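quick q for whoever's on today - can somebody do inverse folding on this one?? i tried earlier but teh output was garbage lol. tokens:
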């Protein structure tokens, strides 16, 4: 036991030394408690429940969750969640991503949800029919409301190469449905040779693929817009009890916080069917994303978030503990700002239920946050673009100008975010070595 205590003390000292070099404040007692808890949970796949709030999740995941914003997440959850249908559909809604790590990520970018949807049906074909029906029904029921606007639904796979608007999409890629197309039940486009082509909702339902719904929501209390997404993991339960994922893969539960204790039975039933290689597969998928954001779509904030999940699940606890402290630095609010600028642009569509006043109020909040977080030339330039964005919001016919200002502001913000994270990630030798290894090994 003494040896373990000494090891954790040495880990903590390394974290403190690295943080001090960068001017990052470390809550030593909290960091030691986290390291101790992680050592106790090592190799565990157990689920724990917060008896006060009724939420539950993997032991390691629950260490990062705070119920401080739980009522807010439950309010938004009422918009995005699917309803159970007795004898036909069972669901379990969870927070995922930075929303599930609210104890350490004070400035999450979006409201990310994950929902297990288990469909009981005699055949796979009938299960797909039910999924197509409930997804379109959900989309139509939540097209817009006083504080939300549906932006996009992912459902089905393109049966052929097609041009939609000014986008060329490949056969087999996910179909993106916008509100007008969901209403019509079809997407109109043309092939490369100019022949008209139509993608019908009913025609793609037997290969549902990646199922996801996205909204913009306006929180009247925070006076802030946010992107709210619900990623579905859909399974078919046959009459003999066999469980089959409709996309061929049953997602693990390493980053989810389930919002209702009543979801325990459906979660427990599905968790039994998660692959024995789930952890290894999950880490490999995250490493592919680390490689992507290191070398292609460069975003060191996303690199840091994914490395944190890798490190805490693979025993690199000192590195994970360092990243926990990094996420709570005030400058990381810029990561949220980067996301919210996109959200304002997304909400600016004809007929949106998100009001001009809500978009302006959210922009004003962003300006104040930038002023608090930055100074000098960087502050001046970003605030200038945000003021131009605010002006463009008053001109409904000038959406191109709005998008241009949004992209300019986002470009400046992500550059600052990248510099912030790159400097700090590179300053810890073991993290720098890991990034170099990933960048080289996956070429």
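ok took a stab at it. sequence:
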């Amino acid at each position: 036991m003494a040896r373990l205590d000494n090891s954790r003390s040495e880990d903590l000292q390394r974290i403190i030394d690295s943080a001090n070099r960068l001017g990052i404040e470390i809550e030593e007692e909290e960091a030691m408690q986290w390291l101790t808890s992680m050592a106790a949970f090592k190799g565990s796949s157990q689920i724990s429940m917060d008896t006060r709030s009724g939420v539950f999740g993997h032991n390691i995941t629950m260490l990062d969750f705070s119920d401080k914003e739980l009522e807010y997440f439950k309010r938004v959850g009422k918009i995005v969640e699917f309803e159970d249908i007795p004898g036909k559909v069972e669901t379990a809604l969870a927070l995922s991503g930075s929303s599930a790590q609210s104890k350490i990520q004070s400035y999450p970018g979006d409201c990310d949800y994950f929902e297990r949807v288990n469909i009981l049906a005699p055949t796979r074909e009938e299960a797909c029919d039910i999924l197509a029906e409930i997804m379109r029904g959900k989309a139509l029921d939540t097209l817009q409301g006083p504080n939300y606007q549906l932006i996009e639904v992912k459902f089905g796979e393109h049966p052929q190469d097609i041009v939609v608007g000014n986008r060329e999409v490949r056969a087999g890629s996910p179909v993106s449905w916008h509100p007008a197309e969901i209403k019509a039940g079809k997407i109109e486009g043309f092939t490369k040779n100019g022949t008209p082509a139509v993608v019908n909702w009913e025609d793609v339902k037997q290969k549902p693929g990646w199922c996801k719904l996205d909204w913009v929501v306006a929180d009247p209390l925070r006076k802030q817009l946010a992107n709210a997404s619900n990623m579905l993991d859909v399974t078919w339960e046959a009459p003999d009890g066999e469980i089959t994922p409709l996309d061929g893969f049953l997602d693990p539960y390493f980053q989810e916080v389930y919002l209702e204790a009543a979801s325990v039975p459906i979660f427990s039933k599905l968790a039994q069917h998660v692959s024995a290689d789930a952890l290894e597969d999950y880490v490999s998928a995250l490493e592919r994303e680390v490689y992507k954001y290191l070398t292609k779509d460069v975003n060191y904030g996303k690199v840091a978030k994914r490395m944190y999940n890798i490190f805490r699940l693979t025993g690199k606890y000192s590195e994970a503990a360092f990243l926990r402290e990094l996420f709570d630095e005030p400058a990381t609010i810029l990561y949220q700002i980067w996301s919210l600028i996109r959200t304002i642009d997304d909400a600016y569509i004809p007929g949106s239920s998100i009001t001009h006043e809500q978009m302006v109020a959210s922009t004003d909040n962003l300006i104040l946050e930038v002023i608090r977080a930055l100074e000098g030339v960087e502050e001046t330039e970003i605030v200038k673009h945000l003021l131009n964005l605010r002006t463009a919001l008053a001109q409904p016919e000038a959406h191109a100008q709005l998008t241009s200002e949004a992209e300019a502001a986002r470009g400046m913000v992500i550059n600052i975010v990248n510099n912030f994270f790159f400097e700090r990630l590179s300053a810890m030798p073991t993290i720098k070595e890991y990034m170099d290894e990933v960048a080289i090994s996956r070429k």
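fwiw The two ends are 42 Å apart (CA to CA). also The chain has a mean pLDDT of 87. so keep that in mind when u check it
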